[in-house]
Amino acid sequence: MSNNTLESTAQLPGSALQIPRLGLGVFQTKPSITAAAVAAALRAGYRHIDTAQVYRNEKEVGDAVLASGIPRADIFITTKIMVPAGSVEASYAAMKASVEAIRSEYVDLFLIHTPDIGPDGRRELWAALERLAGNGLTRSIGVSNYGVRHLCEMKEYAKTYPPAVNQIEVVGNEQSCCWCRADGLAGQLHPWFQQREIVDYCQREGIVVEAYCPLVRNQKADDKTLKALAGKYHKATTQVLVRYGLQKGWVSLPKSKNPVRIAANVDVFDFEIEEKDMEVLDALDQGVNGKLEPWNWRAQN
Asked: How many CB atoms are located within 10 Å of the residue 300 CB?
């Protein structure tokens, strides 16, 4: 069996910092229940929580971490900024406000949430992130939803390259992204939509790939292939999907509000998917046809 455990981490490029390979995503988790979900995750052994400004639950994540009694240094917190504020100084201030909302002296990873802000916006936010890191308010910086062309563009202006992480939210090809257009999709990386071009590029560049939406919003729970493998390994379909992402080398961010499901999503270290079955799951890839329907953040903010 592989060495994957709940304590397994991935090395972030350019630093000694390690990111836990499994974390709790709190996308679309209402502020009123976020603290309880995070507390349940921490009790289950999670040490990685992924939030964002646009989720509107950064404060509640911070409240739960503080109330847990677990040393802050033992918990990896990620947040994200969606849009530039108009200048490096103003964007820096917005990022600093997130750190303060989380009630911490720093966050472990701060991401640009989308490239759908134009080249000037991308440059502004990255410069602000570099300043944030330089001032010790974040331990690492990265991107989300970036395609190959966005990463190539960074080489023209970034003082810090490569970004530590790309939280995959790209559709179809490097020209599109889930936040960019109404026909895009929420962040996805799963057997039916593997986005091999951007994944391969990130791996060549040394960028850690994070998989958002690894459970496919439970829309594939009745897939015959997935159910057969779940039966073979005596696991839930969701557990097979989490395990698949871990064996692919991705950092996986399953999302749930239910304490029982939160705990079940980390009960994936007592089995290993055989290579032939990994190939079966790989063969489920449908490219852009395997994407889920989008979350339109612009309509909700």
From this structure: 9
pTM metric for this prediction: 0.89
* CA within 13 Å, CB half, 130: 15
CA 95 to chain centre: 18
Which backbone phi and psi does 187 adopt, to 5 degrees? -55, 125
As a whole number of angstroms, the distance between CA 184 and CA 172 comes to: 9
Residue 95 has pLDDT above 80, yes or no: yes
Please report, for residues 131, 161, 177, the alpha-carbon distance to residue 152 in angstroms, rounded to integers and kept in the order given.
Answer: 21, 10, 16
Give residue for tokens 């972030």. 12
- The token pair that represents 97 in the structure block: 């406000």
d(CA 242, CA 301): 30
Angle at Cα 132 formed by Cα 126 and Cα 133, nearest 5°? 90
The set of catalytic residues is: 55
Q: Which two tokens stand for residue 255?
A: 């999302």
Q: What is the DSSP letter of 132?
A: H
Interatomic CA distance for residues 7 and 30, integer angstroms: 28
Locate 120 and state its tokens: 């000037």
Full strand arrangement of the beta sheet holding 251-253: 24-25, 48-50, 76-81, 109-112, 141-144, 165-168, 208-212, 251-253
Cis peptide before 162 (omega within 30 of 0): yes
Q: What is the pLDDT of residues 171-217, one digit of tens each?
A: 333 333 343 332 233 346 656 666 778 889 999 999 999 988 778 76
- Among the listed residues 146, 180, 209, the one whose alpha carbon sits nearest the alpha carbon of residue 19: 209
Strands 9-11 and 18-20: antiparallel
